[in-house]
Automatic annotation (TrEMBL), chain A:
Organism this protein belongs to: Lentzea albidocapillata subsp. violacea
This protein's name: Simple sugar transport system ATP-binding protein
Keyword Repeat appears in the UniProt entry: yes
Membrane topology: Peripheral membrane protein
GO MF, one example: ATP binding
Automatic annotation (TrEMBL), chain B:
Stored InterPro entries: ABC_transp_permease
Entry keyword annotation includes Transmembrane helix: yes
Keyword entries, A-Z: Cell membrane, Membrane, Sugar transport, Transmembrane, Transmembrane helix, Transport
Transmembrane segments: 12-29, 41-63, 70-89, 95-115, 122-142, 162-186, 217-238, 296-313
Membrane topology note: Multi-pass membrane protein
GO terms for MF: transmembrane transporter activity
Annotated source species: Lentzea albidocapillata subsp. violacea
Pfam families (UniProt xref): BPD_transp_2
Protein name: Simple sugar transport system permease protein
GO cellular component: plasma membrane
Compartments where found: Cell membrane
Main location: membrane
Length: 510, 320
């Protein structure tokens, strides 16, 4: 790293407010040519907002953006792209109804006689895809491909033009290890060509592997800018979450102290559904955290959906408090005190256009039934209680859920289920795509709930998390329960071995 | 079905289904009634529905972009009115044509701008446009105005002979040219592909840096232009201008486009689907007139049932 070239992007004193939220306050940011710059911070720290200010989606209320020495004020993403800023957003922002080639090149496609030159377009798209090591038919429809491939197509679109700045907002969250390595190889090539790369990721390993410099944000303000080599992980995390790491260790201690016994609250006997999960037995006791470990597609979610009645079992039975319960659907499960927090928080959990308060009240009211309206004071009291208990930010009950960051949306979703006071809480990937701080808070909440007597079924793709938090670990492979382990004495390696046992796991992506 | 889906990309299936439906309906007529299976019956399908074909082409743009245009029927009526009264006042034919096309596209432009600037549902804005255009007709005249201009009458009555003794009118030629132009623009140009992108996912299209504003306003200009052109064709077909012409025709156009496999949610569909949809509607009409004992409102009933079936089929296809 040399300091000699002037920054290609310089943002000074950027401030931006949304209704009820100060998203950015007086933030400075520099990006040099030929570097990979990591933007670090918790969810809601303002990373995505800062990026969208740079790429012309938002216009700052105050401050200036300087690109290659000139003041710029983009009024649309198109203008920013024209000026050489290419962006890959966190969620795939492409059109699934178009072909792969169109998604890569639309807006700058090769033309002949006023019309699009489709053969040339497909050739060009194939070249770009080959450059990042993806071999799919450019004429195929984007919707035919899995999300990971769509993400790579989005990256192909970003590098299909000569860009001076490449923004990658969590490009790796849907990629597997091999694809991440490939992406990093491409990033290094582009960096060596002099492209300035802005990189956002929640995976610290990746940040340390690829980045040269980092900027840390917290609550919409700038905490610091460092060379990556100068900061160790501990102090980086401390900067990001503004508190020490003791919480994480406390969670582990709590898990070890808990020793729940007694009869099973929920017991599955030979419960199964053809094509989804083979018949399994499972006991969950009050005050116990049961972890589900397994690869994607191993039947984790399918198992949970049977317990919740979202899918109908075709064999076995379910007992609650020792009495058989016939689940006719989620309604009867909820009536029996079973709650299911889905992994698809946007699609299945929250009403994005309502406020935090309305989302919580909706759940409370549904639990009470429509004939018994909640008094205003009870509502306010409960909403305030959960805002505080879960540390939802902004702590403004009238903020729209849509405007919250991923981690905070997840907390609102959790709060929605908690207000119904479930006896068994099923959490499907509650920490996916959220940052370390929010993760730790959710894990801590799980241990607190268990200590208060709630039974919890915890599903996560991150084995460390499952091992840390669970009293018992159920391991799934190929839609079958293959083992049940004692969480207190099991290590990650042991679980990995069980999951990997037998044939090597299939890779999802070509 | 599996072998079919393997050979034909699933995105062509709805259009294919409509074409199959057309062939079945026509085949049924040919077996059932003498004289049904003639080239002239097919030609008449085009002659009697040329204006609807043009309307459906314009409507395809709007629906693909995720919008809807309810004003097209009224704009057709307004166009017949402007044509008839312009000719009556002794305007030269080229000036009349220009005035009509300009009126239609200006109305479309205004509606597009209102939809975009104030972020109002297209349904409401074009509903307002529908009332406005219908009202303007009666501002010009409350009576039916017949067209007596020689050139116009000549063009309207000239029969172009095709091999096999089948005759068509200039209307058919114009309608087919419009379909060809619409296909070129939608399927082969950047503007057209952006229409698909906007209909597929508007916020993605914006983040991809595509000119979404131009497209969202542009489709209404195109629909307005097509409506006024359809109005000219309708004037040639009826040889009169009247404020009560083409009442409810916007619904026929929407029905044809949807039966042709275009997704009402936007992003999926083809211009040819709209054409196939019009032909299906026309065939049903012809079948009922050949039957002779059935009243014409049976057409409406059959169209209603077909529409429902196609929406249901689309729904299940999207779910998959």
């Amino acid at each position: 790293m040399t300091e000699s070239p002037p920054p290609v992007v310089e943002m000074r004193g950027i401030s931006l407010a949304f209704p009820g939220v100060k998203a950015l306050q007086d933030v400075d940011f520099r990006l040099f040519p030929g570097e990979v710059h990591a933007l670090m911070g918790e969810n809601g720290a303002g990373k995505s907002t800062l990026i969208k200010t740079l790429t012309g989606v938002h216009r700052p209320d105050a401050g200036q953006v300087v690109l290659a020495g000139e003041d710029v004020a983009f009024s649309s993403p198109g203008e920013a792209q024209h000026a050489g800023i290419s962006t890959v957003y966190q969620e795939v922002n492409l059109c699934a109804n178009l072909t792969v080639a169109e998604n890569i090149l639309l807006g700058r496609e090769p033309r002949r006689l006023g019309g699009i030159d489709f053969p040339a377009m497909r050739r060009r798209a194939a070249e770009v895809l080959a450059r990042i090591g993806v071999h799919i038919d450019p004429a195929s429809s984007l919707s035919e491909h899995p999300i990971a491939v769509q993400q790579l197509v989005a990256i192909a679109r970003a590098i299909a033009v000569d860009c001076s700045v490449l923004v990658l907002d969590e490009p790796t969250s849907s990629l597997d290890a091999g694809e991440v390595a490939e992406l990093f190889r491409i990033m290094r090539v582009l960096r060596d060509e002099g492209v300035a790369i802005l990189f956002v990721s929640h995976f610290l390993d990746q940040v340390y592997e690829i980045s040269d410099r980092m900027t840390v944000l917290r609550n919409g303000t700038l905490v610091g800018e460092h060379l990556t080599a100068d900061v160790d992980r501990r102090s980086l995390i401390a900067q990001m979450i503004g508190r020490d790491l003791g919480t994480l260790e406390a969670i582990e201690d709590a898990a070890e102290k808990r020793r729940p016994g007694g009869p099973a609250l929920v017991r599955a006997e030979g419960l199964g559904k053809r094509g989804a999960i083979e018949p399994f037995d499972l006991d969950i006791r009050a005050g116990e955290v049961v972890g589900l470990a397994g690869l994607l597609g191993s039947g984790r979610t399918e198992l949970a959906r049977l317990l919740f009645g979202a899918d109908r079992a075709d064999s076995g039975r379910l007992l609650v408090d020792g009495a058989p319960l016939r689940l006719r659907g989620p309604r009867s499960a909820i009536a029996a005190g079973i709650a299911f927090s889905s992994e698809d928080r946007k699609g299945e959990g929250l009403v994005a256009d309502l406020s935090i308060r309305d989302n919580l009240v909706l759940a409370m009211q549904a639990a009470r039934g429509w004939t018994r309206p909640l008094p205003r004071r009870t509502k306010d009291h409960l909403v305030e209680k959960y805002l505080k208990a879960l540390d939802i930010r902004p702590a403004n009950p009238d903020a729209l859920v849509r405007t919250l960051s991923g981690g905070n949306q997840q907390k609102v979703l959790l709060a929605r289920w908690l207000v119904t006071e479930p006896r068994l809480l099923i959490l499907d990937e509650p920490t996916r795509g959220i940052d370390i701080g929010a993760k730790a808070q959710i894990q801590q909440l799980v241990t607190t709930l268990a200590a208060e007597g709630t039974a919890i079924l915890f599903i996560s793709a991150e084995l460390e998390e499952v091992v840390r938090i669970a009293d018992r670990i159920v391991v799934l492979r190929d839609r079958r329960k293959i083992a049940e382990l004692d969480g207190a004495v099991t290590g990650v390696d042991e679980v990995v071995e069980l999951i990997a046992g037998g044939a090597a796991p299939e890779k999802v992506v070509s | 079905m599996t072998t079919l889906t393997q050979r034909v990309p699933s995105r062509f299936l709805p259009v294919l289904a409509t074409v199959v439906l057309f062939v079945l309906a026509f085949g049924f007529g040919s077996v059932r009634y003498d004289g049904f299976a003639s080239g002239q019956v097919i030609a008449n399908l085009f002659i009697d529905n040329a204006f609807l074909i043009v309307l459906a082409a314009g409507m395809t743009f709007v629906i693909l972009s995720g919008g809807i245009d309810l004003s097209v029927g009224s704009v057709v009526a307004l166009s017949t009115m402007v044509t008839a009264s312009g000719l009556q006042a002794g305007w030269p034919v080229p000036l009349v044509i220009l005035a009509v096309l300009l009126t239609g596209s200006t109305l479309g432009l205004l509606m597009g701008l209102v939809i975009h600037k104030f972020d109002i549902q297209p349904f409401i804005v074009t509903l307002a446009g529908m009332f406005l255009a219908r009202g303007l007709c009666f501002l010009i005249s409350v009576e039916s105005v017949s067209i007596k201009d020689r050139t116009f009458r000549d063009v309207a009555t000239t029969a172009i002979e095709l091999p096999g003794g089948v005759t068509i009118t200039y209307n058919v030629v114009i309608a087919l040219l419009v379909v060809a132009a619409a296909m070129y623009v939608l399927h082969r140009t950047r503007f057209g592909r952006t229409v698909y992108a906007v209909g597929g996912n508007e916020s993605s299209a914006l983040l991809m840096g595509l000119p979404t504003t131009r497209v969202k306003v542009g489709v209404y200009v195109i629909s307005g232009l097509c409506s006024s052109l359809a109005g000219l064709l309708f004037s040639l077909y009826m040889l009169s201008g009247y404020g009560l012409h083409a009442v409810g025709m916007e619904l026929d156009a929407i029905a044809a486009v949807v039966i042709g496999g275009t997704l009402l949610a936007g992003g999926v569909g083809y211009v040819l689907g709209g054409l196939a949809g019009v032909l299906v509607l026309g065939t049903i009409q012809t079948l009922i007139s050949f039957q002779g004992t059935l009243s014409s409102w049976w057409t409406k009933i059959v169209i209603g049932v077909l529409l429902l079936v196609f929406i249901a089929v689309q729904r299940t296809m999207v779910r998959r």
